[in-house]
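USER: For my understanding, would you kindly supply a protein sequence with its structure tokens?

ASSISTANT:
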Amino acid sequence: MPRSIYDLLAKGHKILINGRQGQYQVVKALKRNVFQALTVGSNSPVIIKTEGVDPVIYQTEANCYSYRCVAESPYIRAMHEVVDNDMDRCMVFEYLDTDLWSLRARAQELGQPFLKAVATSILEAVNTFSDMDGHFTALHTVIPSEGFDDFRLQGAEIRAPEIWKGMLPRPHCQVWSVGVTLTHFCTNRVVFGNWDQDCRVQEFPLEVNKSAWAIGKIIKLIGLLERDEDPKYRLEFDLAELFVKQGLIKVGSLEEELAKVNAPKGCVDFIYHLLTIDDKRRPTAAQALQHPWLQNLERCTILKGSEKPKFWMMRRQEAQPAR
């Protein structure tokens, strides 16, 4: 059984992970199963991801990198190697020193070229996972349904309407999550989800209240949802409609929220396109990439203090070889 890196690190232990391509010293925990580490010798930073509480999802992610399209994609974080020995079971990924959320306060400064580059890169990655070298095996569809009857994938903020209803994940739900991510970046705050819930119906469980609030947010921002949910989630949808009817959820329409930050019309149209409620009408990643707003993509610069302009590259300089 692999050791618990998180617990050992919390106790002050020095953690060295022995891989085939190098040795890695863990320096800090980012999550319970995600760590920053340094490659011994070169001090090159890497990200370590352990099995965590769900070995099925871990193995699914590892298996994805056996596909050439994923291993070589310049839009997907590169995997250096998989470590599987008597002490550790983990994946070693390239280290990225910036994420989209950390740049959200500079959304207006970075402008449309940056946002277009981000949207294009994410959708290219989603498109890769949707195709999988022509096998059409999306990341989500290779996860067996057994054991997931009471567990809906995707976080509450980015969860697509069909997932709230109890449907099995398909690539279209990832397109929805891209739309939510871009909304949060543009507005510099979390708009979807239940983070701001300030009331609940005491007669119902907390989780039902939290789910209902997040569903109500979708109704307020995008529009009414067709009531074809799995019967076991009916209470969540009933309560969501009650929250909306009583005016308890203080958020405007998506257009109103984006207008507060003067989001360009083309950008607003594009986000609405991604956030089509009906997953059967929602564009695929490939179709979304053809949206007029993404055409004529310019290269954009990120300025840091007195540094020379740095290009935000949509592609890494060198693709990782297939494994």
